[in-house]
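Reopening this ticket.

The earlier resolution said the output was attached, but the attachment link was broken on my side. Pasting everything inline this time so it's all in one place.
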Amino acid sequence: MSRTSPVLLVTGGSRGIGAAVVTRAAAAGWSVCLTYRGDAPAADTVVAAARRAGVEATAVRADVAVEADVETAFAAADAMGPLGGVVVNAGVVVPKSRVDAMSARRVSEMLAVNVVGAVVSCREAVRRLSTAHGGPGGSIVLVSSAASRLGSAGEYVDYAASKAAVDTLGLGLAKEVADEGVRVNVVRPGIIDTELHASGGQPDRVARIGPAVPVGRAGAADEVAAAVVWLLGDEASYCTGSVLDVAGGR
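Inline output:
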């Protein structure tokens, strides 16, 4: 892909679903700029995999809860060429808790990443993609969670609430920019075999819950990535404001 080809920015692209999106998007011909918060070696591994597909790729250290970091990440994507798509994927989960045991600090820190970071990322994307800003149009995909409609009682009600906000952000933004050449869609993964569960203090969660999913197993990150990359592309040209569950029937 040449430097004049559209660039895809993926937040939280160093592991799990984000890394799978980067790899699959690179195979589809996108140049990719990914963000990571702390694990530089993991980010470098994903960048190397993308480059093996023959595209330009780079990683930027950025905490999406910090507005200036988000702006820096988009500037790095701009330096690669014209932006064509954004995947708002970065998110956090913390150890399970009932609501009556949650601190305001815990909830605030989660919302800063999962909601404020998502809104700021969308803001920067629209400023570049929207024809109202002189942009060429493009696609935004937000990665939410089936938790937004299941509630995650006894585990992560605050996480579920943050992802419900992501759903609403996608639906509202899609209507706001539909006539400005920008499509906005949401993908809601279910139980996916990634490191996220361990970071939330439940490394056995996939093995424990996966068999109870209607299809009988947990999903793979690449299965979610396939949906994301499809929504980014021209084959999904009439899809905007869509919420696509990739949850095995759960």
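Reporter confirms the inline version is readable. The chain is about 45% helix and 15% strand. The two ends are 38 Å apart (CA to CA).
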